[in-house]
Design brief:
- The protein is of the alpha/beta class.
- Helices cover 43% and strands 12% of the residues.
- It folds into two domains: 218 residues, no CATH class; 90 residues, no CATH class.
- It contains 14 helices and eleven strands.
- The protein has a seven-stranded mixed sheet, with helices on both faces.
- Helix 3 links the parallel strand 2 and strand 3.
- Helix 10 runs parallel beside helix 14.
């Protein structure tokens, strides 16, 4: 009884110590850690994943502007009015000369066109005959400056210091004075507004500030430029509002973008590794099971004692030794006549001297030898047997 009471006291003391430790841990956790809220921006999905102007379109619609966002220009299906605005987000080199002339005529009637310069590629010739050409830039007398892209400062009241157009290619004009310009004549412009009739054409070095979020292509990563926050940044929203100002709320805002869909193989490599990685391991294991093992050499299997030619020769000698030479001659003669029927059916159909003469004309052998070869030799005439068989084989080979 005394031992049981002692064990009970030990168990009770242990439970008290455990409870005290747990209470102290709880108090320490509540005193040290506290709950915080953190906002995580998930990757875009749906249309926002392939439409870089999706956020801009939704913002304009919320502000009461009529928006027509599409992937291609399609001027025949989407008529442009005098008070409309057209933003071409993709490379201007995609415009054909007739489309460029048509757009410029629309601008002269009161339209507002926004285009960008072609993307910069390191090592690309921008001044020679192989330089990228754009029909619209040629009509505006604009040319690309042979300079590496560099950032320009952009400061908005109440916002932190900002830079823009770090990846865009600068440009200049030949004999054209823009209404508004950002840059200088020495290093080129990053933005310019040119008057054309009743309308305006805005030329920009880049449209990254209007995109949903930062998108860094391989070429842009090569330039090592800072990321762009898209319309989430306050300075970008202010700049976009100033650029879209001429025909704002006067007509439809046409946003033309090029869907930048990733390749199928890239998508499978990045997102389908849960499937192809196990399959690749299974294939490697199967190849390992089927591959040749390197170990001690096995003894070669015992070969046949005689080859086919040796068997044929032994059979012929056996028949000839026991007086069956006529059978061997008949077999050779039948083989000769069979080939004669295939190669010269007319000669095979003849008989007697006529057949002998036909065979002599075809093979070039004397008729007497052919007549002798076609006659069965005597069983005891060994020399005649050998000569006839040899001659029949020669005649057969000449057919």
């Amino acid at each position: 009884m005394t031992s049981a009471r002692r064990n009970g006291r030990v168990v009770g003391a242990t439970l008290v110590v455990v409870l005290v430790v747990l209470a102290l841990l709880g108090l320490w956790f509540r005193h040290t850690f506290h709950r915080v809220e953190k906002t995580l921006h998930l990757p875009p999905s749906g249309e926002a994943a392939y439409n870089p102007l999706y956020a801009l379109a939704k913002t304009l619609e919320a502000d009461g502007v009529k928006v027509n966002a599409r992937q291609r220009l399609m001027l025949d299906d989407n008529a442009l009015a005098a008070g409309d605005t057209l933003l071409l987000f993709n490379d201007p080199r995609a415009l054909s000369p007739p489309e460029a002339e048509r757009l410029l005529a629309w601008v002269e009637e009161g339209g507002h066109l926004l285009i960008r310069t072609p993307l910069y590629a390191p090592g690309e010739d921008t001044m020679g005959p192989d330089a990228p050409q754009s029909a619209m830039l040629d009509l505006l007398s604009a040319w690309l400056v042979d300079e590496t892209p560099s950032c320009v400062d952009f400061q908005v009241e109440g916002e932190d210091h900002h830079v823009e157009f770090c990846r865009g290619r600068r440009f200049a004009f030949d004999g054209v004075v823009p209404e508004l310009a950002w840059g200088d004549l020495q290093h080129g412009y990053v933005y310019a507004r040119v008057a054309a009739g009743k309308g305006r054409v805005d030329v920009l070095a880049d449209f990254d500030f209007m995109a949903n979020t930062a998108t860094r292509s391989f070429m842009q990563e090569t330039l090592d430029a800072p990321p762009v926050g898209g319309l989430r940044d306050g300075p970008h929203r202010a700049l976009a509002r100033q650029v879209l100002a001429p025909n704002y709320r006067q007509g439809t805002m046409h946003l033309v973008y090029a869907a930048e869909m990733p390749s199928l193989w890239r998508t499978l490599f990045l997102r389908g590794w849960m499937v192809w990685a196990p399959l690749l391991l299974a294939l490697a294991a199967w190849l390992w099971m089927r591959m040749q093992r390197f170990g001690p050499p096995l003894p070669s299997p015992a070969g046949e004692r005689r080859s086919l030619l040796e068997h044929v020769r032994a059979s012929g000698e056996h028949l000839y030794r026991y007086g069956r030479g006529v059978m061997l001659y008949s077999a050779v003669r039948q083989a000769f006549l069979a080939r004669l029927r295939r190669r010269d059916p007319v000669a095979a159909a003849l008989s007697g001297d006529a057949q002998v003469a036909a065979i002599a004309d075809r093979t070039g052998q004397p008729a007497d030898r052919i007549r002798t070869a076609l006659n069965v030799p005597a069983s005891h005439d060994r020399q005649g047997f050998r000569d006839r068989i040899s001659l029949l084989i020669q005649l057969r080979n000449r057919l």
